[in-house]
Amino acid sequence: MNAIVARNLTKRYGEGENAFLALRGVDLTVPTGEVLFVTGPSGSGKTTLLSILGCVLSPTDGTAQVLGLDVAGLREGRLAPFRRASIGFIFQGHNLIASQDAIGNVRLPLMLNGVGSAEATRRAVAELEAVGLGDKTMRLPRDLSGGQRQRVAIARATVGRPPLILADEPTASLDAKSGREVMELLTRLARERGTTVLVVTHDNRIFPYADRVVAIEDGQLVQEAA
Question: For residue 226, what pLDDT band results from cuts at 50, 70 and 90?
Answer without folding.
Answer: very low
